[in-house]
Write a structure and sequence with these properties.
CATH topology: Neuraminidase
Radius of gyration: 17 Å
Helix content: under 10%
CATH architecture: 6 Propeller
Distance between the termini: 24 Å
Order of helices and strands: EEEEEEEEEEEEEEEEEEEEEEEEE
CATH class: Mainly Beta
CATH superfamily: TolB, C-terminal domain
Largest sheet: 5 strands, mixed
Amino acid sequence: MKELSTEVFAAGFVFLEGPRWRNDRLWVSDMHGHTVYRLTADGAREAVAEVPGKPSGIGFLPDGTPLIVSMHDRKLMKLVAGKLQLHADLSDICPYEINDMVVDKRGNAYVGNIGFNLLAGEKFKPTNFVLVTPDGKAREVARDLAVPNGPVITADGKRLVVAESWAKKLSVFDIAADGSLGNRKVFAELDIAPDGICLDAEGAIWVAGFNSDTFVRVLEGGRITHKVKVVDRYPVACTLGGADGRTLFCLTYQGTIKEMGQNKEASRIETVRVEVPAGGSP
């Protein structure tokens, strides 16, 4: 197993989530800063949207229109001509705040939700997973997930892998022609709580272990090939990008869960060069 270390790419954010590399830019959601940013390869940032309901997952429709999760009001928004418009209201189908998302090449958005009020001390509850089709129609496509986070879709569009944070595992589904999910299996059991994840060209998954100090690269079946340690910080999410797809962008946070909403600049982006480039979505 190889061990790697990061360097700081950009700092001064409150709490970052949902990284996506798109058209030579890194998109990120500053959840508790209520802002979506787009960064150039040298770290210069531009605010592209303010999201009062807390932004999280980011994706793109086939025509390039950005989709942005608005967590608190459980709405999936689209950014059109610099303004947010409603794409789908998920408040009737998702029991609590929505979070991470992946969008496939057809424009199908798969959206997770937390399922219970963690910050208020509620007990864990399993929850569902929702598909939003390009026309904005939503339906449940999976149940009994333990805080679904960071979904990814393989390059052939046939499989979806999702992190189950509360169960310390990655689960994989087959994707049917109509976007439905089935044939659920365990992709990998982990000894860390997986948060955001991304997929490389060899089918391995990079995982942010939120309850640890490491990002890991794991193969189907559970073998870990690489570890990336961060110093005195929690891994939150990651994505592969850069000109050759071999830069791993690592979102990290310094603080406790209860401190997340206190508007402290405790989040930053770190980078590390890796051998295998990005694959699939994201």
